[in-house]
Amino acid sequence: MSAIAVILYLYHTDLWDEFKKLLEPFKQDIKLYLCLCVDNDNSLIEQEANTIFDCKLSYYNNYGADVASFLNVIRTVEEEYFIKIHSKKSLYGKFQQINWRQILLNDFFNNKVLFDNNYLNLNNSKIGAVGSKNMLLNNRELQHSNKINYLCDILNIEYEEVKNSYFFGGNMFMSHTHLFQEYFVPYNRTLQNLLSNEKNKVIELPEGTFSHALERIFGYIIPYNNLIFQHPRHEIMKISNQQAPNEYFNMIVMYNNDCYLEEDMHVYGHIVDSSINNFSIEWYHIQPTTITKYDFIDNCTIVQKQFDKEPAGGIIHE
To answer: Are residues 123 and 192 located together in one domain of the fold?
Structure first.
């Protein structure tokens, strides 16, 4: 297996330890393109990144969110495939219970089997991108429609053919380097000029933003080229529950012991303790949060041991 380019925009330097720990098991499989902000003290990160990884560093002013650096870096990538990630800090959900940075990262770096399967998926000539099943969105142009249309004109994309198509919310995904080089490299200077006015934290303006418009176009070019999206195949923990359509809910356990239901990521929690026979989950989609105990039926199936305040994991909350 050839190396995969991992393009990481690390604005939030306090997350470096998390990324370092997450990526280090794959250091033989990746080349790290680490994008840093010139406003930060990056000295320790530079030293560790160059020591641990095959790493190429680049530096950027704080504009264009995670998009401007990606467009600059993709020009120089020689690896056949890339994974685009960034240090996203915002939370999601009714109670801000969902750490979608970790959900998105987990889709690529949970374990070696998953990582290798994602690579093999892109070897399929019909698959254009791999990313989160829960965050593959459509009909979400919102206030960005005019800017998406404008950018499509620049990029020679027929807007009416891609309008309101699919893209990965959170802007982390895996795809073919040549495809993105073909569409974006010839127009990089023009795109950088447009993005340069979106400084610091990019806010959803009433007239939309080029950063969020490009996030959508990154997804649009997949079906535009008659390619399909593929999702990572996770190991599943089944929760026995009579309220589930098949008497089971499917739970995904992430690299940091956070967990969520495959059927609805809003049902989100954290494994607070575990043993050979049982473990407990603090569910965050219930307020106040509830700790629920489970017993193993077998290696991949659990049943709720007792109800605390309500049957956590059995009722899906929006």
So the answer is: yes
CA separation, residue 73 to residues 119, 154, 208, 263 (Å):
21, 20, 24, 35
* Assessment of whether the complete model's pTM goes beyond 0.90: yes
The DSSP result for 205-245, as a single string, is -TT--HHHHHHHHHHHHHHHTT-EEE------EEEE-TTST
Q: What is the pLDDT of residues 167-193, one digit of tens each?
A: 999 999 999 999 999 999 999 999 999
Contact 172, 182 (CB under 8 A): no
In a domain, 311, yes or no: no
How confident is residue 306, by pLDDT bands cut at 50, 70 and 90?
A: low
User: What's the number of domains the chain is made of?
Assistant: 2
Domain boundary among 203, 230, 257: 230
Q: Would residue 131 count as lying in a domain?
A: yes
User: Which is it for the CA torsion 150, 153, 155, 157, positive or negative?
Assistant: positive
Nearest to 49 by CA among 58, 40, 62: 58
> Is residue 51 within a helix (H) or strand (E), and if so which, with residue range?
helix 43-52
Can you tell me whether residue 310 is helix, strand or coil? coil
Structure tokens at 233: 């195949």
Kindly state whether residues 16 and 85 are assigned to the same domain. Answer: yes
Query: Do 29 and 108 sit in the same domain of this protein?
Result: yes
The C-alpha atoms of residue 97 and residue 93 are separated, in whole angstroms, by 6
Q: pLDDT for 249-266, tens place per residue?
A: 999 999 999 999 999 999
